Amino acid sequence: MNKTHTAVLIPGDGIGPEVTEAVLKVLKAVEAPVEFHPHLAGLTAMEKHGDVLPESTLDAIREDKLALKGPCTTPVGKGFTSVNVQLRQKLDLYAAVRPVRSLPGVPTRFENVDLVIFRENTEGLYAGVENDIVPGVVTSMKIVTEKASTRIARRAFEYVQKRGRRRVTAFHKANIMKKSDGLFLRCAQDVHDAEFPDVEYDTFIIDAGCMRLVQDPTNFDVLLMENFYGDIVSDLAAGLVGGLGVVPGANIGEDTAIFEAVHGSAPDIAGKGIANPLALLMSAVMMLNHVHATQDDEACKTAASRIKQAYNQALADGEKTGDIGGKLGTMGFADAVIARL
């Protein structure tokens, strides 16, 4: 009998509950061996518990070591600290992993895009160390450590080696930020030389790398970078294949992982049944593959493969939501996927 895995489910805000419902319907249809425990984060948690990230939600994730998360709202320039940043820092989810690939039936400027971005997730400018010096003057400190730089580099090289990928490319600005980005580069080089000398490795200054990326993304394979650069390049790369609605995301630590839709909560279309659930569905596939990789569960691997094949076929058949040129609503797309399992 197959083992049932437990995971925390965070529906999120705005369109989050709608896309979550659609994804759960697909997971049930494929009989994925995962039992979800719902918990709150974001505005809904603030309204009910007075905290955007209740301790009960954190404790549940620490217990299950696995979570699937919808989008959570974060105000710009005021209000509370990002739920995502808190989750990464409090659970030490140091690796943000963003696969970006061309999808059948989703035409873009490029074909055959197949990138994976590894972003250091806990420090850099996003460490949140900001201070008012005098009125009108604010400092923001970039923090780079040998520990964090080394472990994200090792994660990227391990991925290339295990998945049979081609190359790791580090993006940096060490020509200007010689100490911080210089440390990041030295750590990546040391990991490569000591542990993965057979893996191809090169580097690009971030601005030149971005130019090359939008000229021809097939020049790159696995991209490695610090937090701030990774945030920007991840979204830029998503634009190469159709936007944030068609890419999954994961935040992974040593023993805990959260898989999430990386798009916003889109409150302007919440409740209309038109949101695209594909990003969260793809993230659920990543989650199932992660369980297979860490716990050797063939049932999860099979479920992941069936879902991926089904949504690829649905897209190829023109069964899409409105944001990517189709006519289906949220649950309509879920049904189209289920019909092709």
From TrEMBL:
The keyword Mitochondrion does not apply. Keywords: Oxidoreductase. InterPro entries: IsoPropMal-DH-like_dom. Signal peptide: none annotated. Residues 6-337 form the Isopropylmalate dehydrogenase-like domain. Gene3D superfamilies: Isopropylmalate Dehydrogenase. Belongs to the isocitrate and isopropylmalate dehydrogenases family. PANTHER family: DECARBOXYLATING DEHYDROGENASES-ISOCITRATE, ISOPROPYLMALATE, TARTRATE, ISOCITRATE DEHYDROGENASE [NAD] SUBUNIT ALPHA, MITOCHONDRIAL. This is Isocitrate/isopropylmalate dehydrogenase family protein. It comes from Natronomicrosphaera hydrolytica.
